Amino acid sequence: MAQKTILIVGAGPVGLTLAWRLVEAGLDVKVFEADAEISDQLRASTFHPPTLDMLAPAGITQKLIDKGRITPTWQIRMQSTGEKAEFDLAVLKDDTDHPYRLQCRQAELSRAVYALLPEGTVQFGAEVTEVSQDASGVRLVANGEEHRGWAIVGCDGARSLVRKAVGAEFEGTTYPESTILVTTHFPFEEHLEGLSGVNYIWKPGGTYSLLRLPDLWRVSLHPQEGQDVEDALSDASIRAQTRAVVPEAGDIDIEEKRVYRVHRRVASTYRKGMMFLCGDAAHLNSPKGGMGLNGGVHDAFNLAEKLAAVAAGESDALLDLYEAQRRPIARDDILAQADENRRRMNTTDPEERLNHLRRLQGISADPAKAREFLLRSSMISGLRRMAELA
After folding, report:
1. Statement to judge: residues 110 and 229 lie in one domain
2. What pLDDT digit, counting tens, does each position of 151-193 carry?
3. Domain boundary residue, one of 262, 282, 311
4. What are phi and psi of 320, to 5 degrees?
5. pLDDT digits (tens, 9 = 90+) for 97-121
6. Selected residue with higher pLDDT from 212 and 41
7. Where is the domain boundary, 330, 346, 362?
8. Number of folded domains in the chain?
9. Within a domain: residue 292?
10. Which of 39, 219, 223, 388 could form a disulfide with 232 if both were Cys (CB 3.0 to 4.6 A apart)?
């Protein structure tokens, strides 16, 4: 199928996953990445059960497990009292082969998938400056050189050049708060009793989260009221916020840190002709719940299957099904669930927080209710609903 060359813009985990799936199907693929190498930047780290199921047959899940940390439970808790609602993913044992979250840097997925691609599939240091299509196919220009193909897929993130070429609006909003993401070796588990591997915590007047990787903790903080972002990102401010949580912390080591804004957006369309959007180019959401990376991987599996089928002779109408299946899930499941998670954690009223906690404790204590809740939060329900959409 050499004549069916697919050009992918962006070699993040979603672009590389898509490339791997297409190569496995026998298509010719070229990936263009502006960075000089796979980025190890501090980004997503949560892999949900169905994503692990999808990646398992190729041995990728085992590679992630080897580099990551299995997290069978996650919790929401009160800092002041230590009360918590803890959810055990073991109730999903009949719904998935991987009834747990896996905490692992997204770069490990990128590396595992990249190792499965033929040499030369990915061009690093290749900045794409133009994309277009006409009656003869699609074209892009990278580093001044023109490339032509059968389809272009934009896996090029929030500022997607391909999304602009498609003419899609990025509908939604940007949340007012910024998030400070930090990694540290400080042993929170020795100071906060009963932590899970993933913890969303209410503190007086605010919230923070603690996610445990094999060798360190990821801490999500927010600027305090009236504090500018530059000050909030300073080592002194990060350490002061940590001491407010754990007075014994002292001056924690800070391995990495970065600040980002949180968006709730979905592209108005995922396709124009033979130009497609995938991952963050198609949807952005709050990171609370860890749905962004996983949703992008699910996009890649869905789109690769359809492109391969059409390349093999099935009707082009099958390509319309990609948007029909994936966009409603992004809008109604991924974005809605992430937004609900954010709203719940951003509650500052003590009584309202307690009401949330009691409701969640009631759900976690009832196996049937816990299963239904975790089917949604683990993205299994969304994938099942996707299969019903036409």
Report:
1. no
2. 999 999 999 999 999 999 999 888 888 899 999 999 999 999 9
3. 262
4. -65, -25
5. 999 999 999 999 999 999 999 999 9
6. 212
7. 346
8. 2
9. yes
10. 223
Domain presence at residue 328: yes
pLDDT of the residue at 2: 41
CATH of the domain at 322: 3.50.50.60
If asked whether residues 303 and 342 sit together in one domain, one would say: yes
Q: Is residue 89 part of a domain?
A: no
Q: Is the confidence at residue 339, as pLDDT, over 80?
A: no
CB 204 within 8 A of CB 80: yes
Residues 18 and 160 in one domain: yes
pLDDT tens, position by position, 8-19: 999 999 999 999
Contact 267, 157 (CB under 8 A): no
Q: In what order do the strands lie in the sheet with 122-124?
A: 122-124, 29-33, 6-9, 151-154, 275-277, 271-272
CATH of the domain at 229: 3.30.9.10
- Domain of residue 257 covers 176-262
pLDDT digits (tens, 9 = 90+) for 283-318: 998 776 778 899 999 999 999 999 999 999 999 999
Do 160 and 216 contact (CB within 8 A), yes or no?
A: no
Secondary structure (H, E, C), 222-270: CCCCCCCHHHHCCHHHHHHHHHHHCHHHCCCCCCEEEEEEEEEEEECCC
